[in-house]
Specification:
With about 500 residues, this protein is an alpha/beta fold. About 40% of the residues lie in helices and about 15% in strands. It has two domains: about 5-220, YjeF N-terminal domain (Rossmann fold, 3-Layer(aba) Sandwich), CATH 3.40.50; about 225-505, 3-Layer(aba) Sandwich (UDP-N-acetylmuramoyl-L-alanine:D-glutamate ligase), CATH 3.40.1190.20. It is built from 19 helices and 19 strands. α5 (about 110-120) runs parallel beside α6, α9 (about 260-270) runs parallel beside α10 (about 285-290) and α9 (about 260-270) packs parallel to α19 (about 490-505).
């Protein structure tokens, strides 16, 4: 499933109409009918439905929705919130069709009148403003939006909540707070941004007939889905042995933080790594081993339980490595990160490793093996030297710029995890829930990534599948065993088992 900007969506519409030759009125008919079918799944026969229509394609979709609901026997009132002269083209065609089918359109943009009508509605269908909205709304529409948000009606937005920007980077806006949004075509960027996604409520997408030549390879962004996981996750051969599934190395741990690396090791083995070695201080090995008996251990030199770089790590003996969990930010550990960067082979850098790699960024694009950085927003902001709010306004743009500049893979962790390749292609993982907002969840993810990157799949597939498994494990655990309150990071590895058993058995 693509993730698009407003401009990319407009371009696809334009190409379908002007190059492929599909009538724009037909596309609008398809969109409106598909959205009305979803609306009918949310309403009862006795509900009073109010549809608020604006100008442009969004209003046109609204008139098709109104006609379809009217024909199917629903009690619907249509209020046009813009003057008649602003309804033109395909939207005017469908407005007139609605009227000729027995519908009535009340034209008013007076908030006092609309407020009274909204109070009587059980369902409000918002079809006022589309994906081209930018900046703050002006009166009277701003007052209408406020009236909707103050009402007790169930609000369903067509394509996008009115007033909400479709793209990232918006600072000031006012938008309808929808309970549901039915998106036409593909989800827009703002459905995956921390500041804007809550306005959508629960969202779904509907197809409206854009042909494959128009949609294929149009956007460099997509959602990583269950279908992608099932299609790309490698199968295990009957004659496989432990050497077929990778020998991984995890570097980190300290006297203060031995648990983080233990969770990473367990997660890597649960995910399917064949062999796992933990490189850490001798004093913490018993603690880690008590939680992960299946791993082997490599003793690194330390000073009072904190790792230093006096030990040469044999990176060439391993298929991939991850460094950073529990490493600490003291200067003595920086040399270990430098050793890892100078070695070859796949490298994942997480947690404290990201702090140390900041001074080594210009060396990353000289490595032959892929580098994967796994920051949360605070760590990504540190690497970019921007504030966290700046990053979260434009996470797609910032991570794309960074990944292309340093030729690395970036996993920006969050409610929606954005995976970016060195070429700038981006994948979003929507798996997971608020139960993952606990210390140690990222350490578990790093272990999953390490195991995945050693399997027979591309790096992009490995990262998409790692984030998917991590998130799905949390979803299953909070549905069947835990709640989002009591779920802790070490629980997640147990959930990996169910993800594999339930999803891979059905492909």
């Amino acid at each position: 499933m693509h993730i698009v900007t407003a401009e990319e969506m407009y371009d696809m519409d334009h190409e379908a109409i002007h190059q492929i030759g599909i009538d724009g009125r037909l596309l609008m008919e398809n969109a409106g009918r598909a959205m009305s079918a979803r609306i009918e799944a949310s309403v009862d026969d006795t509900d009073q439905i109010l549809l608020l229509a604006g100008s442009g394609n969004n209003g046109g979709d609204g008139f098709v929705i109104a006609r379809t609901l009217l024909n199917n026997g629903y009690d619907i009132v249509v209020v046009q919130v813009v003057p008649d002269h602003k309804i033109a083209g395909d939207a005017l065609f469908h407005k007139n069709l609605f009227i000729r089918c027995g519908g009535e359109v009340r034209v008013t943009c007076q908030p006092s009148e609309i407020g009274g009508i909204v109070k009587e509605a059980d369902i409000v269908v918002d079809a006022m403003l589309g994906i081209g909205t930018k900046g703050m709304l002006r009166k009277p529409i701003s007052t209408v939006v406020a009236t909707i948000n103050e009402s007790e009606a169930h609000v369903i937005s067509a394509d996008i909540p009115s007033g909400l920007p479709a793209n990232e980077g918006a600072r000031d806006f006012q938008a309808v707070q929808a309970n549901e949004t039915i998106i036409a075509g593909f989800p827009k960027m703002s459905a995956f941004l921390e500041s804007t996604f809550p306005y959508y409520g629960e969202w779904t997408t509907v197809s409206f007939g854009l042909p494959k030549p128009v949609t294929k390879n149009r956007a460099q962004r997509k959602v990583w889905t269950e279908a992608d996981f099932k299609e790309t996750m490698p199968e295990r051969k009957a004659n496989a042995h432990k050497g077929n599934h990778g020998r991984g190395l995890i570097i980190g741990g300290s006297a203060e933080m031995p648990g983080s690396i233990a969770m990473s090791a367990v997660a890597a083995l649960r995910t399917g790594a064949g062999l796992m070695t933990v490189a850490t201080a001798k004093s913490v090995i018993p603690t880690i081993a008590s939680n992960c008996m299946e791993a082997t251990y490599l003793t690194l030199d330390d000073t009072n339980g904190f790792l230093n770089a006096r030990t040469a790590v044999p990176f060439d003996q391993y298929d991939a490595a991850v460094i950073g969990m529990g490493l600490g930010r003291h200067q003595e550990a920086a040399g270990l990160v430098q050793q890892a960067v100078e070695a070859e082979g796949p490298l994942i850098v997480d947690a404290d490793g990201l702090y140390h790699v900041r001074s080594l960024l210009n060396r990353l694009n000289h490595r032959t093996g892929p580098v994967v950085l796994t920051p949360h927003p605070g760590e990504m902001a540190m690497l970019l030297d921007v504030s966290v709010p700046e990053l979260l306004q434009s996470p797609f743009a910032y991570t794309k710029m960074f990944a292309e500049k340093y030729q690395v893979y970036v996993i920006l962790k969050g409610t929606f995890t954005i995976i970016t390749t060195p070429e700038g292609a981006q994948t979003v993982s929507t798996a997971g829930n608020q139960g993952l907002a606990k210390g140690g969840s990222g350490d578990v993810l790093s272990g999953i990534i390490l195991a995945m990157i050693m399997q027979r799949q591309t790096v992009t597939e490995a990262l998409g599948n790692a984030c998917f498994v991590h998130g799905k494990a949390a979803e299953w655990l909070t549905e069947e065993v835990h709640s989002v309150y009591d779920l802790i990071a070490s629980d997640i590895s147990a959930g990996i088992t169910n993800v594999y058993r339930t999803l891979l058995a059905t492909r």
